[in-house]
Amino acid sequence: MFEQLEEINTPPEPFEFYTAGDLWTDEHTSKQMLKFHLDGETDASSRNAAFIEHSVDWITSHFNVGGGKKVADFGCGPGLYTVRLARRHAEVTGIDFSKRSIQYAREVAAREGLSIQYINRNYLDFDTNNRFHLIMMIMCDFCALSPGQRRTMLANFHMLLEPGGSVLLDVYSLTAFGEREEKAVFEADLLNGFWSPNKYYGFLNTFKYEKEKVVLDKYTLIEAGRTRTIYNWFQHFSPEDLEMEFEQCGFAVEDFYSDVAGTPFTPVSKEFAVVAKKL
After folding, report:
1. Which stretches of the chain drop beneath a pLDDT of 70?
2. Where are the domains positioned within the chain?
3. Cα–Cα separations (whole angstroms), residue 34 to 71, 80, 103
């Protein structure tokens, strides 16, 4: 038991483990995530509905989205952005790890008579012969990827874009990093049963990596028949560091904003968005 507690409370190397599949494909947690996605009043898994409407209005205007424009949403969830963009006559593709979210998105598109291509796949493995005018990755998904995964992702974006095509994504800022604190929490049924329908005990260990500007929320979940660990990584960026990553993959950064609704950039924002163009 002592050795197990030592392991629980020991930080791994940054991005040493990748467990996204356990979060998005597990039968119970994927159901919980979809519920949060569809709660239009909160910013839990998706941003609130009013913000999304404002964001889609800005995206439509800024990128001239309409008929003939091909848009890909990486990490589309249940289609909160894809449906709204398809209503504006864009040709939309949504990619997501969660089978449950993709199924819901397909049902919504069918009810509305919208022609949206949904692909249930880890977007790190996504490939297609289609080429897009705009690629989006919203809700700071980019921050969950290791440096190597981010390079792979940006290289794929570059390949999948039409000449002169754009990327829109958002990230956590250094302001947000400064506000995070290390902690250790132990609770029965941690997060009110989010992790399992069965009785469990949960440890949450938050570790900060000052040099790398990374935060890890490490969940150790102990049930009667199994123990598992979920690693939620959060890379935090300065605009300069993010711009360097884009430039190394063949992009020119056009502008930074405080969010994906086009709010003017300020250094104190906890998140910020980038628009980059394929060279």
Report:
1. 44-45
2. 2-13+176-234, 27-172+237-278
3. 23, 11, 11
Entry pTM? 0.94
**How crowded is the C-beta side of 132, counted as CA atoms within 13 Å?**
26
The one-letter amino acid code at 256 reads F
**Strands 200-209 and 183-188, sheet pairing:** antiparallel
Amino acid at position 149, single letter: Q
CATH topology of domain 27-172+237-278: Rossmann fold (3.40.50)
Cβ neighbourhood burial of 177 (10 Å; 0-12, 13-18, 19+): buried
Q: Do 94 and 82 touch, CB atoms closer than 8 A? A: yes
Strands 161-173 and 271-278: antiparallel
- Kindly list the distances between the CA atom of residue 223 and the CA atoms of 10, 11, 103, 193, 209, in Å, as whole numbers in the listed order: 21, 22, 29, 12, 29
Q: 35-59: per-residue pLDDT in tens?
A: 877 787 777 667 899 999 999 999 9
For residue 30, the surrounding DSSP H or E stretch is: helix 27-37
Distance separating alpha carbons of residues 203 and 46, to the nearest angstrom = 25
Looking at this protein, which amino acid is placed at residue 188? A
Asked if residues 119 and 54 have their Cβ atoms less than 8 Å apart, the reply is: no
